[in-house]
Amino acid sequence: MLYNKRSKRAHEDIEYIFRTLLPENGLVVREEQIQLSHQMLDAFLYKQIALCDAGVGIGKTYAYLVAGVIMRKYAMNRTILSSGKWPVAISTSSVALQKAIIKEYIPFLSRVLLKGGVIQAPLKAFVRKGKERYVCDKRLAQRLLAIKGKPKNAQQKEALLSLRIHFDLDDVHGVSGFDRRQVCVPRTCPKECRKNSGCRYQRYLQRSTEPDVFIQICNHNYLLADSIHRSKSYRPLLNDYHALIIDEAHKLPEAARQMFGHILRETDIIEICYLLEREHCKVDAEKIRDAFGNLAGCIQKECFQEEREHYAFPPTAECLLALKMMIQQLHKTQSHSTGAIPGWTMNRLGEAEEILTHFFLHNKRYVLYLQKDKNEIPVFCAASRETAKRMENCLWNKHVPVVLTSGTLMAGNGFQRTRQLMGLKGHPAVREYIAESPFLYNQNCLLYLPGTLKQTPKGSREEVHMIARHIKELVRTTYGHTLVLFTSYTLMGNVYQELRDDMPFPLLEVWRHSQDEISRFKTQGNAVLFAAGSCWEGVDFPGDMVSSLIIVKLPFAVPDPVSEAEREKYGSLKEYIRSVIVPDMQKRLRQGFGRAIRTEQDTCVVSVLDYRAVSGGRYHKDVLCALPECKRADSIEQVERFIRERKGVDYYM
Length: 653
Fold this sequence. Notes:
Mean pLDDT: 90
Strand order of the largest sheet: 3-4-2-5-9-1-10
Low-confidence stretches: 76-84
Distance between the termini: 65 Å
C-alpha cells in the first residue's frame, strides 16, 4: 500500500510540473507530453521496458527527464537513495542532442524544479564519451614538440595549440584527423605515465564518478560497449545506473550491429602503421599502407558507384587478389616482428588480418558487408548474425527499467518490427505507447498524391522528365519554399540538370557530407533545396521555410548483404516484404514527412511522386497508414487553393 501511495504522489508531481511549474517558466501545456511522462514514470516504477513512439512536437526530452527525476525522488529503496547512488543513464545517437541535454534542458529543468520545491539540490549531469574524444596531456606535449619549428597549416596548428585549454576534441574545429589520433587518450594508459594521476583525463574520470552525478549521457556505441564489458565481467565504462533512457532509439540496432561485430577502418590501418613506424618498422608500415590503398582503390572502382548503405565485397579477380595481398602483408609483418614490437601492436595486426580473412573465406558466421566513410574509403564490417539476441542478453535482461523513445519506433499499426530489431520479441515486461503529435495535421497539412503519375522505366530519361515536370509545377504553385527529398543521388543529379536553368527560384543541392547548402537555403526566402541521405531526418526547417515537401520516391531500402541475410529467415518473399521491407519503408517515410511541420503554426503541402503511393497503387494503404491524418489532394489546383488560403501576403514577397 505504501508503494501505491508513493506512486500516486509521484504522478501528482508530474501533473504539478507540467501544468504549473513549466508553464510559469514559458513552456506550453501539452497533454500528449504529460501522458507520455506518466507512461515513462510507470515503466521506471514497475521496472518495465517502454517503447514510446513520440510524434513531432511532443517534447519527449522533458517528458523523460521529468520522469527520471520523479522516479529518483520516490524510489522504493531509500537506503540506496540516501547514499546518492540512483543515477540515470541517457543514450543518444547524436552529439547535438547530447549537448542540448547537458547545456539547455537539464540546467533549465534544474532551476525550475529547485524554485518549485520539487528537488532540494541541483541536477548534476555528465557526458561520457570514448577515450578517442579527449586529449592526452602527455601525447599533446609530444605532438607540440614534434611540430615545433616545422611548417604546418596555420589553422591546424592554431587548433592544435588550443587543445592546451580545450580538453574535449569535439569542442575544437580544424584539428586534422592525423593530429586527433596523435593527441587523443590511448586505449590503454601506461601505468608508468607520470601524468597518470593528475592529467585532465584522470580528473575527468574522477568527476564523472562523484556521488552527486545523477545523469550520465553517452551515445549508443558507448552504452553497448559498457554492456559488453559488464557481460564479460570487465570494468564497466558507466557508473551503475538504475534506469536507462534511450533516445533516438531507432538508431540503436545499427549501433549494435557495429558493436557486436568487427570493423576495420582506414584509421585503424593508419594507426597500425604509425605504431610500426615508432618501432622503426617503416618498411613494413609502407607496405601495409600501399596494400590497403590498392585494396581500397579496387573496391571503389568496382562497387562504390552504386548508392546504398551497405555493399557486398566485389568478387572480381582484381579485388580478391588485392585482398589476398593485404592479408599476406599483415601476416608477414607479424611473422618477422615477433618479439620486436609490443604485444599491443601485434594484437592490432592480428585483428586486422582476422577481419579481412573473414571476407576472403566468406565466413558464414558473420554478415559481411562494406560501408564507405566520409572520404569514400571502404570500411570492412563483420556483423554478428545474433545481434538481436545479444542485445536482449546485454541490455534487456538486467532487470533495469528502460525507456526507448523516438519519432519512428512504430511502423504501420504496431511495434513488431522494432521489437524484432531490438531483441524484444516476446519479452514479457514491455509496454508500448504512442504519443500522437499535437500538431493539427488535418488542418495544416495537405497530402498530395498526383492523379497524373504514370509508371516509367526506372533510371530512364522518361522518369527524369516526369519527375522534373511535377517538381517544377509544384514549385511554381507554392512559390518556392520547397524541400525535395530523393532516395538516389544519381536521380537527384539528373533532375537537377533538367531544372537548373528552368527554375524561377534559387535551386540548391546538398551532396554527401556537405551541409553548407542547408545554411544557404535557410537564408533564402523562397529557395528550392534538393537533398538525399541524412537530410531525411535531423534537419529543422520551421515556419514558411519549407511550405512544400516533395518526396520523390517511397524510401524502400536497396537490397544489400544485411537485408539478404535477414531475408533468409523468412519462408517466402511475400512474408519478408510485409514483415521487413514495408515497415522499414514506413519508418523512413515518417522521418521524411517530419521535415514538413515543425511548429504548431506551420502549414505545408507534402507531395509523394511515386505511382505506387497514389490511389490504387500497390502501397497506397501502407503510405496512409504510416502518416498522420491529413487532407488529401490529387490535383495541382487543390494544392494551389490550399497555399493561397493559408499563406499571407508576406509569403509571396
